[in-house]
Amino acid sequence: MAAAAPLTVMAGVAPFAIAFGGIGAPAAYLATGLVLALFAVGFTTMAAHVRNAGAFYAYVTRGLGRPAGLGAALLAVLSYNAIQIGMFGAFGYFADETADDLLGLDLPWPLWALLGVAVVWFLGYRSIDLGAKVLGALLIAETGILLVLAVAILARGGAHGLSLASFAPGNMATGGMGGVLGLSFAAFVGFEATAIYREEARTPHRTVPRATFAAIAFLGLFYTFITWTIVQAFGDSGAVAAATDDPAGMFFTAMTEYVGGWATDLQRVLIVTSLLAALLAFHNTITRYGHALAAEGAAPAALGRIHPRHRSPWIGGVVQSLLAAAAVVVAALIGADPYNQFFLWVNSPGVVGILLLQALAGLAVYAYFRRDRAAAASAGRFRTVISPLLSTVLLCGATGLVVWRLDLFTAAGPEVNWPLVSVVPVVFLAGVGLALRLRSRRPEVYARLGGTDAEGAPDAR
């Protein structure tokens, strides 16, 4: 949930959803939550059969074969790195703006970003227990300030009285809702990382499914509720105009009007901590993918080394942090805008990649249970056939929507967007090619791909 950065998504993205989709935008978050819950049915059913911390990598390998699995692994590493590293641009930008306005401390954004890299590395190094406590505290703080705003809006009855017009069929079917659905799917990225922590969970067969459904339910209902309340703050007739005229200031304006200036200042600080929490969550995801790949010989063995005291994949954390720091330095040297270029452009292929991986994982679940008829009969047709196939179709549609309206994510034209999108299939195919090369040259490594794991499961092809 912290990876999704709820406060940043609401204050930074929801106004664009309202501007493009009208007052029906809250329904898009609800619809997205339902689609992802459908995906999670099959995803968590397979979790009981795949005892591997590789998440998408392990699932796709077991269902679609080792070449597709290694392609998914490389795409996951690229996608999570792109999202996390690009987010340091947003962190540097907001930290610089907030410190300057509230404290009069004016430092270049790269310094703030590098400070963020150091903090994230340290928390990731010190173990998942410490990281979870920090993430939990920051998540409570960022959602808490939004709930304060929501309660204040509801207590005053909004601008012109409370209305449920956002959920009227006519408002949910406007021409701009395709782009809004793309934005809403991107807002959930991160929930699927529950599966990578199975080695660190006490009872993963229970806690992984519970955590997955809890994350989806919370984000879906929370996003829907907060977006609806911000529409109420300006009224059905004024919300779209407010979102169009000043999308960056929409939530701050409402906070000042309904709660007070002190809450607006606090909200600005919490956006910075929201980004920090998301950065740490993605850092943990990346290092554990490296650990899973290293354990099977598909990545350097050092990436899988566990710290003897903190039990974290600490070398992988160092490598990932150095990569992020190098990207920040390069962006600073070439004069890239920290938000409009470094954040938005680097982030976008990661979003496309994660959505494509979700679609592949859904298909992999179906293929896996298609071969293991005994497990399929035990789990039931809905969990093993209907849910994975239907979610795959819907997630392919969501991926197409994001690619179609990538300009909403990058604020750029085709000359930027198409090269960014093309990275996704290139990396996936590179992983497939690497697996085929391993099959012919290092068959013992190829045989271990995605296989550290499933008792009684059919061997991956």
TrEMBL record:
Limits of the Amino acid permease/ SLC12A domain: 3-419
Presence of keyword Transmembrane helix: yes
Transmembrane segments: 29-50, 70-95, 107-125, 134-155, 175-196, 208-231, 266-282, 314-336, 342-369, 389-406, 418-438
Protein topology in the membrane: Multi-pass membrane protein
Main location: membrane
Domain of life according to the entry: Bacteria
Compartment(s) of residence: Membrane
Classification via Gene3D superfamilies: Amino acid/polyamine transporter I (1.20.1740.10)
UniProt keywords, alphabetically: Membrane, Transmembrane, Transmembrane helix
Protein name from the UniProt record: APC family permease
